[in-house]
Design a protein that fits this description.
The chain is 64% helix and 0% strand. By secondary structure, it is an all-alpha fold.
Amino acid sequence: MSLAHAPDSDMKSEIDNAVSIDEYASAGNASADVVNRATIRRGLKPRHAQMIALGGSIGTGLFVSTGATLAQGGPAFILVGFCLMSVLIYIIVTAIVEIATYLPVNTASMSYYATRNVSKSMGFALGWLYVYSLGILVPYEITAGALVIDYWDTPVHVGVWITVFIIVIVVLNFLPVQYYGETEFWFASIKVFTIIGLLMLSFILFWGGGPQQDGVLGFHYWKDPGATNTWLVGGSTGRFVAFVGTIISCAFPFTFAPELLIFTSGEMQNPRRNLPKAANRFILRLLVFYIGSIIAMGVICPYTAKELVGGGAGAKSSAFVVGINRAGIHSLGSVVNAAILTSAWSAGNAYLYMSSRALYSLAMVGQAPKVFRRCTKGGVPYAAVMACSMFAALSYLNCGQSGSIVFKWFVNITNTSGFISWVCCCIVYLRFRKAVDNAENKPQIPYHSWLQPYGAWVAMFFFAILALINGFNVFFPGQFSASNFLTAYIGIPAFFAVYLGHKVWKGRSDPWYLAVPDIDIHEGLEQLQNEEPVDESKHGWRKWAQEFT
């Protein structure tokens, strides 16, 4: 019986008497049966899952950082970059959701699936990459949120706002997962409705509806100052450099967004039904919220606007706000800034959730200390949450100038983490797919996309290239510095150092990767199928009511 459905009174004794996770981990067998003895609960409702898929982890990247990217490459390059990135991210989503839907274990993370389908060493390295990278993004978003408040010229010291952010985010993560789902539902709703409102307003401005507009705006800014920009050097070479740099910058708003679906699947009600639905909602998020927003920004704001790179905190650097102000509407800045504030809060909340679940998943397969397996009666891995909450204290480094430099180093180390994660996701999927295709008793796959498996090969190649050229600009004359070079590339050798360190320390007797016949795609599947609830989904308006409540 899975402890996710066990009575509270029996929970502690059952986990204490469970099969030794250390024994199975040392044998190199990431058993789904053992992993499903986790004490976390499946408390995320369908409406939580759908809204998290739509708006979860949308942080300051889409609202603010895109302004600098627009200034870097111009409206055409940023649009191409977001379209390309959206296709590749959707490929990642379909790949990892296929694995998680087939075997929706309670402690789901891509590190667990890497251990099961590739090797323990890859699972170990990927898991700790998630713990650190997601953990360090918590203070990043907290600091961003505190700085966003400076838009209103408040006299309160930034350290006070950082403290408020930390308290709220940490408290929310110590509550049962249904409360996390509820807060993310409303946070995501605010982001969704804000973006929809901005898109509608941008459409009005396109036709010249602003108070200071003279005629139809159309694609005027695509002609003057132009559709593309140059970067670092002039001429055609400068445009190519700007294009490459823009593609790399476009990846930031997507970082770890696909992985959020997998982390939440471990606590999602009926994941075999609701996870594919969440994946299908993801394409709506990419098309409307990302690509739609980029088109709107390119229409209402010229890439030469000085505010995009030097406008100040929060909404002052947002391409939306800059464009709206140019049209003569000066009262919406605070509204957009409030939405940016909730986005930073929501993203920080999501990153702490994912970081703690990554640590918990590692502990459950014997790749992190046992203490991080401990959960409350409500199913919260409190030890993992407590440990990962320590990252939030790094926010205070930004209260001083010298400390902020150190903090930037911590954050910049994660520059390549998203690319590394996505490459590993593709490798894990391709090994899983190979095992399924060569199985004697070929299992039924609940979810599969026509993009696979060829899409995974394309995405793996593309993201591997992006990881290698992530800091290419440091090689241009006058651009090189040791600090920029290290922060751009240190993530790659760090990942392989952890990988090889585990291989030497714990896995010398293990193969570098599991042979296809050794990949067990059946273990734990029967138990999961027996526990799967009966599909009682309704149709018509009843279906909508069921999903929403």
